[in-house]
Specification:
Largest sheet: 7 strands, mixed
Distance between the termini: 41 Å
Number of helices: 4
Number of domains: 1
Radius of gyration: 16 Å
CATH architecture: Roll
Order of helices and strands: HEEEEHHHEEEEE
Number of strands: 9
CATH class: Alpha Beta
Helix content: 25-40%
Length: about 220
């Protein structure tokens, strides 16, 4: 169990809701498709390495296996008031991907830093449970078309697209990769509701995603 102290039944119900969110041809945690994995500074296509740190002071260090690659497009294009929230959204994506890339017995420090509240704690529990089953990720993950809009509660919503056509699920125990045929289901639209923490940084307070997003489909 991670941050949450909720009864196991409540956590299971919340995890089940996460697994069913926006699924087309399988849930977000379907063994046929993997959630995302990434490394590097948002905005620059980067090949993964064992460990990397952004050039910005105080930026997180991410630790990922060499078979994982990320491509961020447009996340460094935001200016003015959007610059920080776009940067931290990129770090939140990378923290999620880092957690899914290898097996962890507890919530990773980077995930805890950038994902908060019940949704973050429940998501962490789900990732840890998948790791116990030997389910991790591999391949190339691409993030693009980001935009930032405020909501009525004063948070910033970062919306973007994801391309998983070259992303796959992998068995951590055997190394076997489950390769799938590219299709519309590989394209996802995400929305991260970002709120400020006491240190002035941005964290994911909630999120939604939709699998099979035609508005994200590219050649």
């Amino acid at each position: 169990m991670t941050r949450t102290t909720l009864p196991a039944a409540v956590v299971f119900a919340a995890s089940t809701a996460l697994l069913l969110t926006g699924c087309g041809g399988g849930s977000s945690d379907s063994p046929d498709r993997a959630q995302s994995s990434a490394i590097g500074t948002p905005g620059t296509p980067t090949t993964s390495a064992t460990s990397t740190r952004s050039a910005e002071p105080g930026a997180p260090t991410f630790d990922l296996p060499p078979d994982v690659r990320i491509e961020f497009a447009g996340f460094d294009a935001g200016g003015g008031k959007d610059k920080d929230v776009m940067r931290d959204a990129g770090y939140a994506i990378t923290a999620l991907l880092e957690a899914e890339a290898t097996v962890h017995a507890t919530e990773t420090a980077n995930f805890k830093r950038y994902w908060t509240g019940l949704s973050g704690a429940t998501y962490a529990d789900t990732i840890i449970a998948r790791g116990r089953q030997g389910k991790v990720i591999t391949g190339t993950y691409r993030y693009y078309s980001p935009r930032v809009t405020p909501n009525a509660q004063g948070a910033q919503v970062v919306s973007y697209c994801e391309d998983q056509r070259k992303a796959y699920a992998k068995d951590a125990r055997t190394g076997r990769v489950r390769v799938t045929t590219p299709s519309l289901s590989d394209f996802r639209s995400w929305s991260l509701v970002m709120s400020r923490n006491s240190a002035g940084g941005w964290q994911v307070a909630n999120y939604t995603w939709h699998q099979g997003a035609r508005n994200c489909q590219v050649a």
